[in-house]
Amino acid sequence: MTASARQIVLRFLAAPMDVTYGGTVHGGKLLEWIDKAGYACAVGWSAHYCVTAYIGDVHFTRPVRSGELVEVTARLVHTGRSSMHILVTVTSADPKHHAFTEATRCLTVFVAVDSVGQTVPVPVWQPESAEDRQRQARAIQLMGVRAEIEASMKEQTYSEAGTAPSTTLRFLATPTDVNYGGNVHGGTVTRWIDEAAYVCAVGWSGTESVAVYAGGVRFYRPLRIGWIVQAEARLLHTRRTSMHISIHVRAGDPKTQRLDLTTHCLFVFVALDDSGRPTPAPHWQPRTEEDRALDRHAEHLIQLQASVGVHI
Q1: How far apart are CA 21 and CA 199, in angstroms?
Q2: Residue 247 pairs with which residues in a beta bridge?
Q3: Residues 241, 279: contact at Cβ < 8 Å?
Q4: N or C: which end of the chain has fewer CB within 10 A?
């Protein structure tokens, strides 16, 4: 494989339809760009169709505005048997000056599959520089933390015993959501997740809110066109200005009405005042044992994420 096959850069203008009600590009659109760049890099390396398996800790450190020139760089940093770990960085600039600054970065994992969806081996990538070796070592280290986060998320119970505020969006996946393999884009799913979390956040805070973090976005199975999609966002924990929200996406054939889990993740939103500055969010007090368990779970995830950071 050539050096160019391990990296791809997408370049385009942020459009007015990409922005939130607050005037900046919403987190779901950033995640959609990240997913598309990661997909292009994974397919280029593996020469197979690839599916999104995971999107790691995403810190939205700076807003991207409509009209800015955006660069999304996806770079391979580690390979497993059928998996590719890809570092994706989003930068943007005023097109008049081209002074690019970073808006976010994260680690994504894609898996190569054949025509029937079975995993296939990918070419082994070998680091060529000290920077390559450092990034690969970091990716391997994060695999252990990711497994711990996933295990913690799977252990939690979400039932009617919970009293936390929640929002459920329900709709059909349309043909415009399709990817090259006939399923729904992973980036489209993350946009739906962001929308459900946003409605939950502003409903609780009573003010404009913005995503500052997305973590542990785990894709369990493909989501197909024509299926019923249900995105349920539930408040787990609040801090002074932030709201920690868990989102489950379930989907299934409308003829059977059976909805299976396809995606699960955690978003953090911050409440904003009229000038766009962080403002205190109402404190949520857990009432039931399930509420308290999920509140502790959110605190545990915060500690895990703080212990490793996102830069590799």
Answers
A1: 12
A2: 233, 265
A3: yes
A4: N
